[in-house]
Amino acid sequence: MQENIPSSHEVAQLGTSLFMFGMALGSLLWGPLSQSLGRRPVFLMSLLGGTLFNLGVCLSYSMPSLLVCRAFAGVTASATFSNIGGSIVDMTTERTRIPYNTMFRFFTFLGPPLSALLGAIVVHDADWQWNLRSIPIAMFVVFALYTLTVPETLMSVLERSHSVNIANHDEGMLELAENWVFAVLPSRATLSLVATQVRKSLLIPWVLLLEEPIVMVICFYTSMLYGLLYGSLLFFPQIWHDIRGFTPVQVGYTYFAVKLGLLLSAIIVGCGIQFFDYLRAYDAGKHSPELRLRSGEWSNLFVPVGFFIFAWTAPFTHVHWIGPCIGIVLFSFGMLSVFNSWMAYLTDTYSNNTAAVIAINSFFRCCLAGAFPLFTNQMLSAMTVQGAMSMFAGVSIPLTIAGYLFGIYGGRLRKHSKHAVYG
């Protein structure tokens, strides 16, 4: 891209950062809106807006227009990132929810390494612009499929719609036919009520953050984990290409190690251990949100261990490439296991405000993920690969300890909650 649109490396990376910052802001908009307007209209607006703004990115021939479109693409498309957790809660029960949440988070984490692999292949066989063109094409396909196949899922909206249908039916079909315009268009009172609900719902994420210590702790924990994942993936080109001499396509293939770790985590921990442990406890009447954390806490150790293995094998060319790949598998395995546990805990505890609590969590995660591309090159130059990755491992150690402590004492904190369903 820098060959076609002259710019510095930092400005070229700014497109990714602005997209993630847009995702952060959009999460605060679409999450609360879905609690008032319903899931379906929010997803339709988000998918259509994301398609159009990503199309604008493809048609941009200057860096300012490209960056502006990337930012708005992030804002509009963020419902697909922050609202699906709410839809899963709508369509599932607490007893059987974890496999669906696991698969959603698996594909969420799969996005960055998969896009890196496909991007390397596309740029090698075509050009960088086809990387950008693939996004609106994919989003339009998803928009069409969602429009044709997925109904509204939020119970309050379904009940409201059912009540309106009954009222209209009782008024008589003749009167309805004569006043079809007024039957189709919402009244001023309805619009005023919806506007009031929207204004209130936009404040809910911040209320939960400021009044709920649980939400504050989990937002910090998961944001740091997500930032560490993004930061480590950004090191791959420098490590595998610049140091080890891999071709761009071969660098893309190294992301298979990330995918393998995520897949093993989803199958073994999410759909296996966590699911069946919670199932047995639920049927015995001994379940609690903290069980989501305890059933996967052994995998917490894989995050710092994987980081340290990667840090002290990747930059040394005499070490076989399988060494750092083992580290990658371990930390991606632990990353998804830990993240899945904490987000399941969050959605169970606040199932009455799922979209709002995920929105504030997504805001902080995306902010950190957007910040990392702005300083990774400088970090590598100043600290070396060993130093940077060891710092990541060091940061993950207190996070791991905090996960164990929260699994033990989180119930006490939850009992003092103002908004928790389990409080």
Automatic annotation (TrEMBL):
Spell out where the chain crosses the membrane. 12-30, 42-64, 70-91, 103-123, 135-158, 214-236, 256-276, 297-315, 321-343, 355-375, 387-409
What compartments host this protein?
A: Membrane
Whether Disulfide bond counts among this entry's keywords is no
Any idea which GO molecular function terms this record carries?
transmembrane transporter activity
Q: Which Gene3D superfamilies match?
A: MFS general substrate transporter like domains (1.20.1250.20)
InterPro entries attached here?
Answer: MFS (IPR011701), MFS_dom (IPR020846), MFS_trans_sf (IPR036259)
| Any one GO cellular component localisation term in the record | plasma membrane
Q: Which Pfam families match?
A: MFS_1
Q: Which UniProt keywords apply?
A: Membrane, Transmembrane, Transmembrane helix
UniProt key word Heme: no
Major facilitator superfamily (MFS) profile domain: residues covered: 1-423
Name where it mostly resides: membrane
Indicate how the chain sits in the lipid bilayer.
Multi-pass membrane protein
Give the protein's recorded name. Major facilitator superfamily (MFS) profile domain-containing protein
* Organism from which the protein derives: Malassezia vespertilionis
